[in-house]
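Reply to dn_fold:

You asked what the input looked like. This is it:
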Amino acid sequence: MSRVAYRPTPVFQATNVFGRKWAPSLAIWGVGTGAAVLYLLSVTPLVKREFLSKVPVIGGYWEDKIPASDKPF
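and this is what came back:
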């Protein structure tokens, strides 16, 4: 009759397997969530001024070109 031998898995190997299995899915969900947050918050002046206008190639799209005299507040 055969015996059942228990060999504990090292912690780093278990986390490595977990990371390889879930990393692509978590990365895709993270990028999608980040894009959705930027899209939803792109109408707020703080996000436009501090983040979107500083994107290298397309940052000029979000620059505020309205003169200060035409702004009500």
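The chain has two domains: 10-41, 43-73.
Hope that clears it up.
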